[in-house]
Amino acid sequence: MTEKTTVEAATPLAAMDEATQRGLMELLEKMAPLLQGRRFHNLVDLASLASDGVDMFDDAMVQKLMKAYEEGVGAAWSMSNAARFAANQTATAQVPSLLGLLRVARNEDVRRGLYFGLTFLSVLGRQMKDDGVE
Questions:
Q1: I want to staple 40 with a disulfide (CB 3.0 to 4.6 A). Which of 34, 101, 116, 130 is the partner?
Q2: Using CB atoms within 10 A of its CB, is residue 114 exposed (0-12), middle (13-18) or buried (19+)?
Q3: How far is Cα 17 from Cα 53, in angstroms, rounded to an integer?
Q4: What span, in angstroms and rounded, lies between the C-alpha atoms of 74 and 97?
């Protein structure tokens, strides 16, 4: 290394105030195990991966994610609202007999909810089915 190169390399450090130099030295001391164990490379790779992810997010992707988020929040709100309402209704009502349950099933909304629940469980069961693969 020539004398001129050494002076040019030292110039940025000389331009820093003492507190900045101390902070930089402390940071390098803390990073030393990562650098020596070549684990710092993993952090750089992770930053590169995050950067690639940000580059992939175009407007269409953001719109799709926003729609999925809104639908998910809406579904969660509907479910919690229905659960609160049902809990309040059943807390004050007397437990119906089996015949009383059949009377409740006359209500179209009850039948629609039961149909939804049974269809949901059917799809879930189909997905869980063992296809005989052993």
A1: 34
A2: exposed
A3: 37
A4: 34
**Using a CB cutoff of 8 Å and minimum separation of 24, what contacts does 124-130 make?**
none
pLDDT tens digits for range 49-58: 998 888 888 8
Query: Residue 36 has which token pair?
Result: 């020596």
Map residue 16 onto helix, strand or coil: coil
Residue type, 130: D
Q: Which amino acid, one-letter code, is at 102?
A: L
- DSSP of 69-117: HHHHHHHHHHHHHHHHHHHHHHHHSPPP-HHHHHHHTTSHHHHHHHHHH
Is residue 7 scored above 90 in pLDDT?
A: no
CA distance 71 to 117: 19
In the block, residue with structure tokens 């030393």:
32
